[in-house]
Amino acid sequence: MNLGSKPSLKTLTKRAIRKRKEQQIPLSANAKAKIIRMSPLKVRRVLRQIQGCSYEEALILLRFLPYRACHPVAKVLKSAAANALSKYSVPRSYLQIEKAFVDKGPTMKRIRPRAKGRMYPIRKRTSHISIVVKSTFSRYENDVKGNFLPVSIG
């Protein structure tokens, strides 16, 4: 092997592309829904199902899962996709769910009357749903001639 030889143009462009990919910030958008009248435990089992899926896969899953929590989760997912489209002009087909989590919201406390004048507390739990979507392509990737090419990141 000749140590003094220069790298070819092909390896230089591959290196330049790899370097540009490493420098780019991944495009991500998020959406939140606050004070959803549903227990976080029930929402969490739906979010675990769609974690890591693509946007379209997640919508199909949410449509056919038999849980009541699917409707508000789908609304938040669609909102996150709309945010990505308006913020970065990323098409919905290139979106993937990076994070989907639920936090506990304020609990409404009610009272249920019981025997002998006693009362029994009822806790009506609420939740805050958050979904973060990221794009799976680098929108600044160009070929040698300068034409735009959607290149998958991962």
From TrEMBL:
CDD domains, per the entry: Ribosomal_L22 (cd00336)
Pfam family, one: Ribosomal_L22
Subcellular location: Plastid, Chloroplast
GO MF entry, a single one: rRNA binding
Domain of life of the organism encoding this protein: Eukaryota
Keywords: Chloroplast, Plastid, Ribonucleoprotein, Ribosomal protein, RNA-binding, rRNA-binding
Transmembrane spans: none
Matches recorded under NCBIfam families: rplV_bact (TIGR01044)
Record's function text: The globular domain of the protein is located near the polypeptide exit tunnel on the outside of the subunit, while an extended beta-hairpin is found that lines the wall of the exit tunnel in the center of the 70S ribosome. This protein binds specifically to 23S rRNA.
PANTHER family associated with the record: CHLOROPLAST 50S RIBOSOMAL PROTEIN L22-RELATED, LARGE RIBOSOMAL SUBUNIT PROTEIN UL22M
Family to which the UniProt record says this protein belongs: Belongs to the universal ribosomal protein uL22 family.
Known partners and oligomeric status: Part of the 50S ribosomal subunit.
Protein name: Large ribosomal subunit protein uL22c
Organism: Nannochloropsis gaditana
